[in-house]
């Protein structure tokens, strides 16, 4: 049955901003969903009139009824247990995710997964078609929903369709491995405008269209051959920097940050890593570098401490289990070998925290270690420079989208090169205060001048500016 309500602005992402969790007694609790997509889109959607967010509510089974949370209208999509395994864990996170992140771990392909991916994309498309008002704006998000744009176009030729990829888009030589690659490209070409984190991602997509679909590509526009076009360009995402800045400067957060430092024994240098526990994030490389710096005596555990927050993620997938084992073993080893009584060399926390606590950690840290092997953007880097003390320092991997905007002013590293990573960490720790202050001033300005509202404005303006499509 179509939903009786329709909306002028409909977004669809695999996840809703909150997960509903039902306990054994049937009590439902709501918790914030993990990841940067939610951080960014929550700020864009909160309080927006005539808007709905379609997504999975975090539990398998029948979809719960639409509900309101935090000034957003949320419409759950149901996933069966099999679809969770095949569409979400399988095709999305065991085929596409590793392939789009430079195959840091091998990508796995199963025919059953692809069928489930198509079925779930169709379910999203149908729900979008039911909820969109005439000529509405539809904004589809991320790699889990790459077929949905063309499916929506088929059902509702009147609406404007945009899609944004929160993760990298791989070079065609890697993308070509994906079963059904042409269908996926045609799925995306159902949109009027496709947004990517970096120009390199948009270029990879355009190259894949040229090579695999043999369509004409002029500049950043794909000509489908029937008079229709799709534009693909970079629109780098950001955070709600003014809101985050205000929170970081509130008395409560300042006091909490001071307390955190005190609880850690007031170290001379507090290093911080904040990541989902994902093999793309370079956590193992970071720990290796830190462990060696302690072992060599370059860093003294009496002066320096590392706080590593590792949010639980995709815990049933083997690659994530293996990583968790490796990370926890290394943390244990470093602490066993180097921690003085009562002040661990690494404080490791494998859980989620309220927003204020995360911001207090950013305020407290002297150096943030953001060392992914590949990352679409990495919002943690932007959050850190917005919150930290004026003399904070950011160690940033060249393989993040954030490095495009934040290269000047951060301590850039290649996390694969442990020797140079160690040097970069030391450079950040030892840089003269004056240098750190001027670098941080620059970084903060970049993020405050380019917040998530501006990003959404750019994306929607590009979508609006896309040419009208001729009727099919
Ligand atoms: P990804 O989307 O790959 O997880 P990002 O760095 O872009 O990576 O975004 C992660 C977001 O999740 C940030 O807003 C960060 O502050 C938040 N976050 C990370 N770990 C936690 C945690 N343990 N508790 C709460 N929020 C977290
Ligand atoms: C990244 C992806 C999001 C995803 C998030 C959390 O940010 O771009 O699409 O929601 O990770 O991952 P999960 O698999 O838990 O949704």
From TrEMBL:
Database matches in Pfam families: Glyco_transf_20
Gene3D superfamilies: Glycogen Phosphorylase B
SUPFAM superfamilies given in the database record: UDP-Glycosyltransferase/glycogen phosphorylase
CDD domains: GT20_TPS
Name by which UniProt lists this protein: Trehalose 6-phosphate synthase
Enzyme Commission number, as recorded: 2.4.1.15
UniProt entry tagged with the keyword Transcription regulation: no
């Amino acid at each position: 049955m179509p939903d009786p309500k329709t909306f002028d602005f409909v977004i669809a992402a695999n996840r809703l901003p909150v997960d509903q969790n039902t306990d054994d007694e049937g009590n439902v609790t709501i918790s914030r969903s993990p990841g940067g997509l939610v951080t960014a889109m929550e700020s864009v959607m909160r309080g927006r009139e005539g808007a709905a967010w379609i997504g999975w509510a975090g539990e398998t089974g029948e979809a719960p009824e639409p509900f309101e949370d935090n000034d957003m209208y949320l419409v759950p999509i149901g996933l069966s247990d099999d679809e969770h395994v095949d569409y979400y864990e399988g095709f999305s996170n065991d085929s596409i995710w590793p392939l789009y992140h430079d195959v840091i771990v091998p990508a796995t392909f199963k025919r059953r997964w692809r069928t489930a991916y198509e079925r779930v994309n169709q379910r999203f498309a149908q729900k979008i078609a039911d909820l969109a008002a005439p000529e509405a704006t539809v904004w589809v998000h991320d790699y889990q929903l790459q077929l949905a744009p063309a499916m929506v176009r088929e059902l509702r030729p009147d609406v404007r369709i945009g899609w944004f990829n929160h993760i990298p888009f791989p070079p065609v030589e890697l993308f070509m491995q994906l079963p059904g690659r042409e269908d996926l490209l045609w799925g995306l070409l159902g949109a009027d405008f496709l947004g990517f984190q970096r120009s390199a991602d948009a270029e990879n997509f355009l190259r894949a269209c040229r090579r695999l679909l043999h369509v004409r590509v002029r500049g950043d526009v794909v000509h489908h051959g029937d008079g229709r076009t799709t534009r693909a360009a970079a629109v780098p995402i950001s955070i709600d920097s003014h809101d985050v800045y205000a929170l970081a400067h509130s008395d409560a957060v300042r006091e909490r940050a001071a307390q955190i430092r005190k609880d850690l024994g007031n170290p001379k240098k507090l290093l911080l890593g904040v990541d989902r526990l994902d093999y793309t994030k370079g956590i193992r490389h970071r720990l290796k570098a830190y462990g060696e710096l302690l072992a060599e005596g370059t860093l003294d555990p009496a002066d320096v401490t590392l706080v590593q927050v590792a949010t639980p993620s995709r815990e049933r997938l083997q690659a994530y289990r293996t990583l968790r084992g490796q990370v926890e073993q290394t943390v244990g080893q470093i602490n066993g070998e180097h921690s003085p009584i009562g002040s661990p060399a690494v404080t490791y926390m494998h859980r989620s925290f309220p927003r204020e606590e995360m911001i207090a950690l950013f305020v407290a840290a002297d150096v943030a270690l953001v060392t992914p092997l590949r990352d679409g953007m990495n919002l943690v880097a932007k959050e850190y420079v917005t919150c930290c003390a004026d003399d904070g320092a950011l160690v940033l991997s060249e393989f993040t989208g954030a490095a495009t905007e934040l290269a000047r002013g951060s301590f850039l590293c290649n996390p694969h090169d442990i020797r140079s990573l160690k040097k970069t960490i030391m450079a950040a720790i030892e840089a003269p205060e004056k240098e750190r202050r001027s670098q941080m001033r620059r970084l903060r300005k970049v993020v405050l001048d380019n917040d998530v509202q501006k990003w959404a404005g750019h994306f929607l303006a590009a979508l609006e500016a896309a040419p009208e499509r001729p009727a099919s």
